[in-house]
Structure formats: C-alpha cells, structure tokens
Amino acid sequence: MSELRPAGPLEGRIVRIEPMAERHREVDVRWPSSIRKSIAIRGCTRSALTAGSTSRGFDSWFDLALASEHEVPFVVHVAGKPAGSTRYMNVEPFHKRMEIGWTWLEPAHWGTGANVETKHLLLENALERWQAMRVEFKTDARNERVRSALLGIGCRFEGVFHKHMSLPDAIRDSAWYAIVDDDWPRV
Questions:
Q1: Which structural domains are found in the chain, ordered by start?
Q2: In the prediction, which pLDDT does 31 show?
Q3: Following DSSP, what letter does each residue of 71-109 receive, concatenated?
Q4: Contact present, 46 and 168 (Cβ < 8 Å)
Q5: How far apart are the C-alpha atoms of 120 and 93, rounded to whole Å?
Q6: Long-range contact list for 22-25, CB < 8 A, 24+ apart?
C-alpha cells in the first residue's frame, strides 16, 4: 500500500489532501462538529460498534482508518482546516485497480469544487503515479446527488448491483462507476 501513499500532500487550488496520520486526530480543536457527528454515527455502524458519544465514535472510526493494511485514508483540508476525509480502498495491486470511497465532506464545502478537485488529485495519483488501470466508485443507487457528481467528473456508469449491502435501516442497491486508464486523458 505504501506505493499508493504519496510522499507529500496532494495540493490543488481549493484542497490539500494528506495521508491520514495520528497528528490529524485533533477532534475537538480542528474537525468540524458536523463531520465528527457524521463520522461517529456512520463509523460506528460500519465497524459494528455501539454508537456512543461523538468523540468515542470518531475515535473508533479514526483508529480503524489508521489500522487498515488494505486502505489508504486521507484528510481533506480546505483553507487549512480539516473539511473531510476520503480513501483508497479495495486495492488490488495485481489487477492495478482500486476504489475511491468513504468520502466525507462538510456540507459547507459542497458545490464549491472541493470534492471534484479531491477526486481529480486522487485519480491523478492513482492513474499516473501508481499506473492503475481502473479506479472504481460506488454509491447508494438512491443518491442522485452523488451519482450526478460522479458523471460530472468523467466516470462511466457501469450498472446497479441489487441488494449489494445491508444497512441498519434498509438493503442498499449500489450504483457502480469507474474511470479506466484509457479514459484518463479525456477526463
């Protein structure tokens, strides 16, 4: 996984993306409360932990992100402050593919270009530096906002996997998207 981890931050006009490290944990000081709360709830759900306090849920999510040997988590900064997180996941080095997912962005930064720039920087790192052949994205098929955003960054829609995931309150159909190395010059 170290070959996917950039040597330094990925910097754009709007965002600065850094591989997640212990120094990014400063929950009460730097992470926006809306992100802490969202991550705490969803992080606990994913890791089968009991949703407790926001700080405890956030810490559980953060610990799992740092401990993973099969994912590369990142912190997304806007104007010098943590505004969200994303990661490379489901990495298959032999097949030169991975997924970009677990993306959280504070609502104040939606529609600002921060998400598009984040995805572009991660795609550039994966497709040009790591020489990936394929980068995948998946989302809840009901999430039209994310689906439109994925098409907007140049992804191809590849189909819906019905009954793909169990959620606490529903069964999720997942819409799959991808960018392959042949598409990258167009994107």
A1: 10-180 (3.40.630.30)
A2: 55
A3: -EEEEEEETTEEEEEEEEEEEETTTTEEEEEEEEE-GGG
A4: no
A5: 20
A6: 22/66, 24/62, 24/75, 24/82, 25/59, 25/62
* Separation CA 69–CA 143 (nearest Å): 29
> From residue 31, how far is each of 58, 95, 181 by CA, in Å?
10, 35, 34
Positive or negative, the CA dihedral 77, 58, 105, 129 is: positive
pLDDT beneath 70, residues of the chain:
1-2, 26-56
Supply the pTM of this predicted model. 0.83
Calpha distance 14→52 (Å, rounded): 34
Residue 97 CA to residue 131 CA, distance in Å, equals: 9
> Among residues 79, 62, 104, which one has the least CA distance to residue 16?
79
How far is 156 from 4, CA to CA, in rounded Å?
A: 23
